[in-house]
Write a structure and sequence with these properties.
The chain is α+β, with helices and mostly antiparallel strands. The protein contains eleven helices and nine strands. The protein folds into three domains: about 150 residues, Triger factor/SurA peptide-binding fold, CATH 1.10.4030.10; about 60 residues; about 100 residues, Chitinase A, domain 3 (Roll), CATH 3.10.50. A hairpin with a 2-residue loop joins strand 1 and strand 2. The protein starts with a helix and ends with a strand. The N terminus is likely disordered.
């Protein structure tokens, strides 16, 4: 998605920082100039701090430094681009109603247990209520301008959708699928002598389902598989999702057919194939909207890049 939403995500991460023990010194030196406005080290640190905490738990030494350097550079570029868009939004006088900002604030407040917790989260980031309102007003302005300058300009013709479908049919292939139910009796590794009893039990269960007793009811009563609560329903599976031994067995069954008992390392299994969906190419009408969305996102991304490049070409940008 657009760079704006990456910044949104980063800003949202800020509010989880109150639960972290990592602290960082906020230095307000200027690190970039965008036309007649500046970006400070403090702004960058505010977003980088939770990322640092995450990376510190994953990487060490030189790799940590490299990851942080990459993150710092990417965030700085995103801040510069957002600054350019915001300046343009102000130039063309994008208006944001106070009620819209207040509504966004209420949404954020609702994510906290109470007002005190919300205030503490702001305090930990050196933010005031006014600061936060300004941030959300700017975010809304940026999104509104992007919607107008990018999204509203993108059109997808019906012929583009149908042409994509014809040229990419392999993307819409659906493999053969089986809707499967199962009953599992687990082995007791600590008591090998009990295997004879377990084998007797699974044979009795197998006889019941083969005689036409309700598979789901018996699965709920006897099965030790997590699917037991759903009557043994495993949902739809495709070839290759199960171990080969089970895979070969399942794809040899007909609808409603009960399998023989099959033994694996974890226990004894019985399967029933409830339904078979044969392999097919998804029809055009089923995928038309998803193709349209895909083409829309591609065109919007290209237009966004073009528009952003034009803003940069006409801007003064200095990175310290």
């Amino acid at each position: 998605m657009f760079r704006f939403f990456k910044i949104l995500i980063a800003l949202c991460i800020i509010f989880s920082i109150s639960s972290l023990s990592v602290k960082a010194e906020i230095v307000d030196g200027i690190i970039a100039i965008v036309n007649n406005e500046v970006i400070t080290q403090g702004e960058l640190n505010q977003i980088l701090l939770p990322i640092y905490a995450q990376y510190k738990s994953t990487y060490t030494d030189e790799e940590l430094l490299q990851k942080l350097d990459d993150a710092r550079r990417n965030i700085l570029y995103q801040l510069i681009e957002d600054k350019l868009i915001l300046q343009e939004a102000k130039r063309v006088e994008v208006i944001v109603d106070d009620k819209e900002v207040s509504g966004r604030m209420e949404q954020i407040k609702s994510q906290f247990a109470d007002a005190d917790e919300f205030k503490e989260a702001l305090k930990s980031q050196n933010l005031s209520i006014s600061d936060l309102k300004d941030k959300y007003r700017e975010q809304i302005m940026i999104k509104r301008l992007i919607d107008y300058m990018v999204r509203s300009k993108v059109e997808i013709a019906p012929t583009e959708i149908s042409r994509y479908y014809e040229e990419h049919r392999n993307e819409f292939n659906v493999s053969k699928q089986l809707k499967v139910k199962t009953i599992l009796i687990r082995k007791d590794d600590e008591d090998p002598e009990s295997q004879a009893e377990l084998q007797k039990k699974i044979k009795e269960i197998h006889k019941k389902v083969k005689e036409g007793n309700d598979f789901s009811k018996i699965a709920r009563e006897y099965s030790e598989d997590p699917s037991a609560v759903d009557g043994g329903d495993m949902g739809y599976i495709e070839k290759g999702q199960m171990m080969k031994k089970i895979d070969d067995l399942l794809f040899s069954l007909k609808p409603e057919e009960i399998s023989d008992v099959i033994e694996t390392g974890i226990g004894y299994h019985i399967f029933q194939v409830v339904e078979i969906k044969e392999a097919k190419v998804m029809p055009y009408e089923e995928v038309r909207l998803s193709i349209k969305e895909k083409l829309f996102q591609e065109k919007a991304r290209d237009r966004m890049n073009e528009w952003m490049n034009s803003l940069k070409e006409n801007a003064y940008i200095s990175i310290k």
